[in-house]
Amino acid sequence: MPQRPGTPSASCLTSPSAPALSGPSQKCRGSRIQIAGSHNLYATDYTRAQGAWRRAALPLQRRAQKATGLEVGRRLQQSLKDLRPSAAASQSSSAEGSGLQPKSWEQQTQHLVAVSTLPFLLLMMPQVIKNASNFMAGNARALAALSWVGYSTAYFGNLLLLAYFVGKGEREAGLIQAIGVISNATVLTQIWAAGYMPGAAYAGVVILVLAALVITGLKVAGKLPAGRKRGKIWSAWHQTLGLIGVALLPQAIWATFSRINTPLPACIAAAAGAAFLALDKSGRLPAAMRGHWASVPGWTATLLFAFQPLAQTVSNFSGTSDLTGVSVGTLLLGMMGNGLMIPRALVMRDAVWSTGSIWGTLLSWTQLLSLFIRHTASGQRHFAGWAFAVTSVLLALYLAAIAFKDAEARRPLMTKGTPPGPGALQQS
């Protein structure tokens, strides 16, 4: 039977009972040398294999240690985040005992938006009531001081933002815009009934308000046709509003600064907008200009709200119009509603919202200034001096407080390098 290499023969093995030999034979001595060499060879191979394994395992071990460290760091960071509300709760225990709950700036702006619904709901009521009383007294001439262009601009701006907010799923903001649409349409109806608004323009207002109420109501209730047809109907309505807005904006600017009554600016702008939309749908526009029509309604609404009070303001300062038909209550409610929307608009960093709210607030104050400067036939001011002074001081303090609070909320984010936004401000 063959033997394995390095295994001694039977004659070289001695049992305990066998007598010891005086010296090993040459054959046994060679076998023992062979055994020692084989053991050294095996030990060398094992050492080499162990070293290679360690060299190969070292990067993996380092990666495992790094991953473990990252995991520990992540868990530690999460634990610190979990401890922050607890610490805030412990610090506000005294406030809880007194019934006062600390609220973040982002939550406070949400409450301000909810509160702004009330002044917007009552915004046109003083003007509507005053117009009705003038009608009943046989003084329809007082409505001549109301600019139908200004109210039409405000009406269409609300209409655009109604579609804008409903498309984003912001029902509360959409409700405010729906209130604005109905209120402005009511005042325009009174101006038309007094004979100071063209019939064609009023017919367009009626058609648009009915279409807006039907389509937007179906959109909110989820009653539009299902599938791709639903998206096509809403997209067509959104594009139509954008096209009308493009036509109305230059017409509103023209009517504000010119006494010549012509629809030429609206026709030119509508033709240019229709051509741009057709080229965009056919894919013939340059790549840098494609897909921008979706932002047209938002920018149009921004500019319409910027020019909305301007027509009435120019009419007030012109000195040729009778200001007895202008309601101070409407201006105060408009300034209050827009002012309450400013903090939320700043938090959301929404250009449309911020521009409309700030501009509407400042232009309402400017119209109050015109009422303070102008006098009635009896020599009295349309807006008392002490009331205008109190209103101006309160508005200045409120705007300063908003600026300070918004800067205070953004300061920790700027220190940490976090870009400002609604999500980041919610964490502060």
Automatic annotation (TrEMBL):
Q: Does the keyword Transmembrane apply?
A: yes
Q: Which residues cross the membrane?
A: 112-129, 149-167, 174-193, 199-221, 233-254, 260-279, 291-311, 323-346, 358-377, 383-404
Query: Region (Disordered) spans which residues?
Result: 1-28, 81-102
- InterPro entries annotated for this entry? MEX1/MEX1-like
Stretches of Polar residues bias are at 1-17
Compositional bias of kind Low complexity: 86-95
What are the alphabetically sorted keywords of the record? Membrane, Transmembrane, Transmembrane helix
Please give an example of a GO cellular component term from this record: chloroplast envelope
Query: Is this entry keyworded S-adenosyl-L-methionine?
Result: no
GO MF terms held by the record: maltose transmembrane transporter activity
The name this protein carries in UniProt is Uncharacterized protein
What organism is this sequence from?
A: Apatococcus lobatus
